[in-house]
From TrEMBL:
Subunit structure: Part of the signal recognition particle protein translocation system, which is composed of SRP and FtsY.
Gene: ftsY
Record's subcellular location: Cell membrane; Cytoplasm
PROSITE patterns: SRP54
A GO cellular-component term linked to this record: cytoplasm
Organism encoding this protein: Sandaracinomonas limnophila
Protein name (Swiss-Prot/TrEMBL): Signal recognition particle receptor FtsY
Broad class of where this protein is predominantly found: membrane
Length: 324
């Protein structure tokens, strides 16, 4: 199978299973979101100022974020003004359309494949994010899906500040049958990255995924460490890393925004993975982060299974969010 056929056209049962997992994963967000909208419009016949005030509060408590919430409210106000009359029964549809439009504007088109076409193999993914967001688990699930689809994968355990991260990655490697390059704890992360990419080149691997430290003492340390890792990778592949994937915990709401701010200052982030959406009512964070950072949300985590790390599809996400 070719490298960029990873997400080959799926059979209908697979697509249906993914949609069901997404629906289940967003249950808590939907329950809060839709029930609150329902209560906001009880006894109202049209979308007036009171309804818009309620809607603003609903979006904020779903962790859409202040700037994005204000943008959505302004768009709905313009719709009401333009159409002269929008009744409360239409509010769901109007809101759905405006959220879909916002997601469409604020990132590239839906990712149909796991990769952007690189000039050569291996495709190097550097994964960043603070401890506890599900970074190492995301790497394991991603590697497992790649491997299941016939790709040769190498993992680099360069989060050497945390023994648990190295051990966890090695466990994933053993479980899936993927080589994991590690030098143990408190070793040089850049050296691990160097050996991981070298191994990937030597074995003609398709993908190499490098885990990086989630906690360093200062932002300067973080920037220095990530820069060092990039430099050693580029000794083998000048245009690498092809992707810098920032993993964020969707259940932390506004903290995810702060983490995104810190990491986008420290390094050039090219894609986002938002995890743990199944355990939270804060699934609106996907909308706000996509809008505010203009970085494509590439993956979302909606459950424990390997397949519950899904490629993010804007249309399917919005459909699921408003499914009653």
């Amino acid at each position: 199978m070719g490298l960029f056929d990873f997400f080959k056209k799926k059979a209908e049962p697979e697509i249906q299973e993914e949609k069901e997992a997404l629906d289940k994963g967003l249950e808590k967000t939907k329950e809060g979101f839709l029930s609150k909208i329902g209560r906001a419009v009880v006894g109202k016949s049209k979308v007036d100022e009171d309804v818009l005030d309620e809607l603003e509060e609903i979006l904020l408590t779903s962790d859409v974020g202040v700037p994005t919430t204000l943008k959505i409210i302004q768009r709905i106000e313009e719709r009401v003004e333009r159409d002269k009359y929008v009744n409360t029964e239409e509010l769901d549809q109007v809101l759905r359309e405006e959220i879909a439009a916002l997601l469409e504007e604020n990132s590239s088109s839906d990712v149909e494949h796991a990769f952007a076409e690189p000039k050569q193999k291996p495709y190097v993914i550097m994964v960043v994010g603070v401890n506890g967001v599900g970074k190492t688990t995301t790497i394991g699930k991603l590697a497992s899906q790649f491997h299941q689809n016939g790709l040769k994968v190498v993992l680099g355990a360069a989060d050497t500040f945390r023994a648990a991260a190295v051990d966890q990655l090695k466990l994933w490697g053993e479980r899936v049958g993927i080589p994991v390059i590690d030098h143990g704890m408190n070793t040089d992360p850049a050296s691990v990255a160097f050996d991981a990419v070298k191994q990937a080149v030597d074995m003609n691997a398709d993908v190499v995924i490098i885990d990086t430290a989630g906690r360093l003492h200062t932002k300067v340390n973080l920037m220095t460490e990530l820069s060092k890792i990039k430099k050693v990778i580029q000794k083998f592949i000048p245009e690498a890393p092809h992707e810098v994937l920032l993993v964020l915990d969707g259940s932390t709401g506004q903290n995810a925004f702060i983490q995104a701010q810190e990491f986008t200052k420290a390094t050039e982030v090219t894609a986002l993975a938002i995890t743990k959406l199944d355990g939270t009512a804060k699934g609106g964070v996907v909308i706000g982060i996509s809008d505010q950072f203009k970085i494509p949300v590439k993956y979302i985590g909606v459950g424990e299974k390997v397949s519950d790390l899904q490629l993010f599809n804007k249309k399917t996400y919005v459909e699921s969010l408003f499914k009653k």
